[in-house]
Amino acid sequence: MRQSLEGYARPVVKNELQRDVERVSLALDVNGERSQVLVPVHKTLLEVLREDMALTGTKHGCELGECGTCTVLIDGRPQLSCLVLPLQVEDRAITTVEGLAVGSELHPLQQAFAELGAAQCGYCTPGILLASRALLDVNPKPTRDEIREALAGNLCRCTGYVKILEAVELAAERISPLPHSGRGSG
Fold first, then answer.
1. Whole-prediction pTM value?
2. Residue-wise over 123-139: b if at least 16 C-beta within 10 A, else e?
């Protein structure tokens, strides 16, 4: 039996600010709030959101840009936060899943996902919600194929995607309930 944990993990850094790494002070606009953060230049946006800003709704997945779990919106467009450095998004609007609800009122996507059971384990849900939000912002009445295409970069290992697609359709109906006639008013 091993008597020591030496070699298994590096010692905990008690004061990260004492480490010899280059840091940068940034102003990040996250969920409508401007925050000043001092971060090592090598940290990804995903790490800064979770570790420095305590916004843990954005999840670590593959950290290679292949699963979509870490999706956030940057200026309204879905981006993989594991591939973005905070320096690249200074002074741009960043939206995480925590920014979808307004106070205690869920976004229609969140409500539809809850009602239809579109989330099973829920790990992929934040990324899927944000990719869906970006779609509905530019296309309020998407077809099922357009929804599939918008969510193609978001992997879910628990569901067959049917409930997810149905939830996005339901949210679209609630957000934009009247059919577009194609005519101007008056």
1. 0.84
2. bbbbbbbbbbbbbbeee
Any idea where the domains of the chain sit in the sequence? 21-99, 108-175
What the block records as the tokens of 151 is 């969510």
The CATH number assigned to the domain with range 21-99 reads 3.10.20.30
pLDDT of 104-120, one tens digit each? 999 999 999 999 999 98
pLDDT digits (tens, 9 = 90+) for 61-107: 999 999 999 999 999 999 999 999 999 999 999 999 999 999 999 99
Q: Is 2 helix (H, G, I), strand (E, B) or coil?
A: coil
In this structure, are residues 126 and 71 in contact, taking their beta carbons and an 8 Å threshold?
Answer: yes
Q: Which CATH architecture has domain 108-175?
A: Orthogonal Bundle (1.10)
d(CA 98, CA 78): 15
Supply the DSSP symbol for 48: I
Write phi, then psi, for 27 (nearest 5 degrees): -105, 115
In the DSSP assignment, the letter for residue 167 is: H
Judge whether 61 and 121 are in contact, CB under 8 Å.
no
